[in-house]
Every structure is written in structure tokens, then in C-alpha cells.
Queue: 2 jobs
Job 1
Amino acid sequence: METLQNEPVDVIFLDIHLPKLKGTDFLKTLQAAPHIIITSAYSEYALEGYELNVLDYLVKPIEFNRFLIAVNKLKQYNRVVQLAAVHTAVTERLHVYVNVNKKKVKIFIDEILYIESLKEYIKIFTRSKSIFTKLQMGQIEEMLTKNEFLRIHRSFIVAKNKIDAFTATDIEINGKLLPIGRSYKELVLTTLE
């Protein structure tokens, strides 16, 4: 117990019958237990061990290949935890900041319906608001994820997953009809069909 309080411990191979305390009782005293693999001659404690979230239960005498299975299970569990952490970091909502009246305003990428160019300004439309900022279309296009947005006209970029309907000449998003430019028509239609 002293070692657990003072040192980082990744895994404990724990016997059930200890000199002064049963292994399962020891487990119940731990607040933040490391991974536990029980090693015991008694298989009847296996269910109780799993109820205490042990990683594996090895019955003595332990064959080497069974020991390796337990260790590989630990490695695989750690890999899954790391992947979950990476996935969580990746799934944070993407956003951009744009200047509006001398302050930076956050816009979540997944809320953008479409963007309209107004010479050196753009207007970003979401379901709840529109944001007017001094940016050129090329600049905002570089900030956006290419596979989620589509340039349909020299004056319009649309979020592909927000398109409600389209024809050969226009795209409908949230009740608004946006024209497809002649030079963008082939790309738009092949992307959407």
C-alpha cells in the first residue's frame, strides 16, 4: 500500500490469499487502483474478482502462454484507452475566429450553412445568425475543410451536408436558392451526384 501511494504502478499481479488480508479485500481499499491481474490457486474467487474490475484472472499453476495472454490483454486495453483519448481530442468541434467590429468571433464550422462573397468582405450564414467580416473568399476557403465545403460559384461556398436540394442551376439551403456558376457546374454536379 505504501508503494502504491509513493510510486506510479501500472499493474499488480495479486494473489487472493495474502498473509494478513485477502486480495479482494485489499482491492476494495484502493481508491485509484492500477490494472489488477489476479493470480490464485482458487478459481472460485474469479467472479468476485471481475466484479472488482480486474483485468484478468490466472489460476495457478500458471502456464507461460496463459501469462502472455494476460499481458497482451493489458497492452491491448492500454492501446484502446490511448485511441479513445486521441479520438476525443480529434472530435472537438472545429471552429474559426473572424474579425467582427474589432473583436474575434468564434464560428463553429459545423454550423455554417453557406458563405457569400461581397467583394473584399464575406457573409457567413448559420441557421441562427449571419456574420459580416472583412475576408476574401480564397482566405475563408483555405480555413475550411475541403471535403465538407464546396465552391459552387465565385460568390458562394456551401456546406455539403446542409444542402436540401439542387438542380443543374442552383442549390437550396435552408430555404435559400444559391446559383451554381457556369465554370463550377461540372465540378458541383459530379461531386453531388
Note: The longest strand covers residues 112-118.
Job 2
Amino acid sequence: MTIEERMKMIDAKLNREKQKEVEEREYTQRETERLRKEIMDLKPRIDDLIKLGNYALQKGIDISRSGYGGREEYDTGMFISNSWSHVVGFIKVGKEIKYVGRIAGGAYGDWDFLTNGSLIFERTYLINQEKRRDPELKILRVFVDRFPEFEKAFYDYIDNYCTKEN
């Protein structure tokens, strides 16, 4: 094999790698837009959840409970996402639920995902300053994949709360 043939092999390899990067970027962009649209289509359901979540809080229903040993999942009554539970759930701003999403932070990476169906963003913390940025594809997937479980679990929790005998 000649030097020129090897040089052509190098060029061909670099062109394939460059094409693969372009295809991956295009896929990520298409998938990100698809998931953003899917989240925006959830807006009426998100609005209903936020409305009922705030109503439950106003009426004194505990929707941020911990289980034995500090375990926090839907079956314990934990529907407020925090840096300990990492559940897809309600995000409070002050005393009011404003968003649904997932607080990750810590061992899960430095990101929090928030949406109200119209606004979709990732909030990161950099030296005590808040910075908003568009969420990465993997973060959108986590939310879209886990939202139905959160929604069902919360409605089941309210239904069980209202029908159980004290």
C-alpha cells in the first residue's frame, strides 16, 4: 500500500466520522424538538396537576411525606421533587407549586428540570447564581418517561386519601 493510499484511507475515515457527528447532531435536534412538543402537549394535564396540588396544599394534605429511613417515593406520599427524592413531581416556588419537573442535583448531576407546559427549562446553579438553559435530550427523556407514573400516582393518592376511613 502506498503513502497516497494510506492518506486517502485517513481522509475517508475522517469523513465518515464527521458525517456520523452531523447525523448524531441532527438526530439529537429532531428528538429534542419532538420531546419538547410532547411536553407542551401535556400542558392541560400539567395545569390540572398543579391546580389540584396547590388545592391539596391549601387544605393541609401532606404531599411531601417521607417513608421509613427517609425513603421518598410516591408510595410514601412524596410528590414534591427535591434533591433527596429525585422524583418527577411538583416544584414549589415559595409556598406555591408553580411547575412540575425533577430536582436532581448532587450525585445525579447538577441539573433541575422544570416545566409548566409552556416554559421548559433546566436550572443550574453556578456559585450561588441561577442560570437557565435549555435541557439536554436525556433530561427531557427522563421527564417524559416518568411523567405518566407521577400523574397516576398523585391522582391515586388523592383518591385513596378521600375514600379511606380514619
Note: The radius of gyration is 22 Å.
